[in-house]
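WARN retry 2 of 3 for item q-0093 after timeout on previous attempt; input resubmitted unchanged.
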Amino acid sequence: FPTRRSSDLLSDPLPNESPDAGAGPRTYRVKRGDTLTRIAKRYGTTVTNICKLNRIRASNAIYVGQKLRVK
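OK item q-0093 returned
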């Protein structure tokens, strides 16, 4: 196996992402242990923006398997 740098991992598309981010909304499928804050940091956005895109409140629980718009 070739050695991968952490920067390589961040640039690779994740299986939960839309395949072409420029073609439309980018989505993310919530996994166990995810938080809105962690998801927002991963995609360079804010919790407020994710909440607006998904019409949820920051106090709402997110659940495993939930599909969220992140951009």
